[in-house]
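Ex. 9. Protein: CoA transferase.
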Amino acid sequence: MALQSNAAPAAPDLPQGRRPYPAERDAFGRNASGPLAGIVVADFSRVLAGPYCTMLLADMGATVIKVESPSGDETRAWKPPVFEGQSTYYLSINRNKRSIALDFSDPGDLETARTIAAGADVVVENFKPGGLERFGLDYASVAEQNPAVLYASITGFGSAGGAALPGYDLLVQAMSGLMSLTGDPESPAYRSGVAVFDVMTGLHAAIGVLAALHERAQSGRGQRIEVNLMSSALSGMVNQTAGFLLSGKVPTRMGNEHPSIYPYEPLATADGDIVLAIGNDRQFRTLCEVLEANELAADPRFSTAPDRSLNRAALRPILQELLAARPAPEWFDIFTEARLPCAPINDVRGGIEFAQRLGLEPVVAVGDGDTALPGIRNPISFSSTPASYDLVPPGIDADRDDILAWLELTAKAPAGPRR
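Predicted structure tokens for CoA transferase:
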């Protein structure tokens, strides 16, 4: 566990994946049954990428201490929408954490922040590159006191040439090229409806932390983990960035069409649109059978995936005419019965309700009793160590006394091996 040793530990002589000393509850009394039980995370991040990362870790059992400025995480003020006066944005990414507000200009508060970082297994921060050096909270300073620390830094554009650029998701959507791909060919560039690169970078940060935890379990060594929105964006645009690199062709906006697959878009029916995602020749033959248009599958213009992609302008009106025979809900049932990839176009309410009908149980209760809040389930399922949803997102500084008492208690504990 953290907060007990400043010396780099030896690699534990245990079978891979075993905990050296499992505990039923963490230092704050929370049920410690998740796969990250016993891991302490000092969360110096704010807004989305960092808090999303640390929430995922907290769901998996890590003890997460959210260190905020006295004014709080900016997302607390991002309204509307609201739930009982609180920002739903903030509530969506801060469950299972404990909050302490610290003013780094105050010597006492700064020392508390350093003590938290010195004892944590993991530090997550998204300050501008170099922004924590003057407080002695940068990686080099923390690692001097805590050599086994795993220190995850999240930036917008890295710590080299882009260090001075502000790291907002919208800016990265624009600079990475994503906005040039979003919208109709004649429309202006559009951002995604969600801060996709913040979320993606939070996921990459969590993956980096988990990989580093595994390595540390073997070697006992700490290390720094760096992720940035721009790199996550270029990696996350997968086929579009690779398509440019390998072909030299710059991709452009195609509306809802796919550059390499057809039909792979919403198509009009007698009443409403239905999305078809026909990814191979077998699926296209099945579609033709269901539409009672087998001649399309034999047509050399449409018989193979590359041909369908090249001749989509000829195929689209034929499909539209056939689909006009029934409304979208009927086609969805028919296509689903034929095991064809298709989907209605839902709003967010419809998406959650559809997941409920599938038995995915997307909505969980966060916290207990009258104070419990609805939240979206962690998307990772474990057969033996499930995610938990014990704590509602904390108010500013809500856990100061408990955190300070814990720091005092652990400071008096005898030195022992970090897990």
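Check your answer against this statement. Residues 264-346 form a domain with the formyl-coa transferase, domain 3 fold (CATH 3.30.1540.10).
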